[in-house]
Design a protein that fits this description.
two-stranded parallel sheet, single chain, alpha+beta, about 240 residues, 8 helices
Length: about 240
């Protein structure tokens, strides 16, 4: 997205920053216990959440290796800080509706991925291959012809999946295989745990990778403004 400001703090074409809608979405879904993993410019993130996180019980932990290790380590840090808890992983560059969070929590499985079924997939999409509601593969390198949708940046890690994730992350770290995404760890878990897909409808999700993606994110915000608008803002009164 350019510049030094964390992407999640960039305003969306005159609207609030991405992080505002993540916090509001969680709050609207009744999720108040939040563990926020920071890396780049953590003080700015923490100040923003302290100001906008009313009603949320937020704990901060920093991934000190954010610049040299892939984001698989951020999820590892979160798991280490929340033993014996189910962990809902939410990417910092997505807008999703509260219903997505609720739906994923109601889906069975050791590892549950929010998936938007799509016939047309872009090069940057994190693709998934499905068999009914089971996820059989995930990765940007999956052939588009063999993919059934896009991972929507939200996942639920339950106890067995958490144990497996930590084991795989340990091996990656010892082998200095440290440039991967957390989805790469998920890919290695497919035959080890029960991985399920939770459906995401069109208009319930947008990811912001480039400035061209902002319009889709704004469309989600406008369509679901009552659930996602910042408290006290003009949007909340729309």
């Amino acid at each position: 997205m350019g510049g030094g400001t964390p992407k999640t703090l960039l305003p969306l074409d005159g609207h609030e920053p991405l992080l505002t809608y993540i916090l509001e979405g969680l709050r609207s879904a009744g999720i108040t216990d939040v563990l926020l993993v920071t890396g780049h410019r953590p003080n700015e993130i923490q100040s923003f959440v302290n100001e906008h996180g009313e009603g949320l019980d937020v704990t901060y932990v920093r991934n000190a290796r954010f610049a040299s290790w892939g984001n698989f380590h951020s999820v590892r840090v979160a798991l280490d800080q929340s033993p014996a808890f189910d962990l809902l992983v939410v990417n910092s560059d997505v807008v999703v509706t509260p219903d997505v969070y609720k739906r994923i929590g109601e889906t069975s499985g050791d590892l549950v991925l929010a998936v938007q079924r799509k016939r047309v997939l872009d090069a940057e999409d994190m693709r998934v291959r499905l068999e009914d509601d089971r996820v059989r593969a995930i990765g940007k390198d999956l052939k588009r012809a063999h993919s059934h949708g896009e991972y929507a940046g939200v996942s639920l890690i339950r106890r067995e999946a958490a144990n497996r994730y930590s084991e795989i992350a340990n091996r990656m770290e010892w082998a200095q295989d440290v440039q991967g995404y957390y989805e790469d760890v998920y890919a290695r878990m497919m035959d080890l745990v029960d991985v399920r897909a939770s459906s995401v409808a069109e208009g319930e999700y947008a990811e912001v990778d480039t400035p061209e993606d902002v319009a889709a994110a704004v469309a989600v915000v406008k369509r679901h403004h009552q659930a996602l608008a910042a408290r006290g803002s003009a949007e909340a009164l729309a």
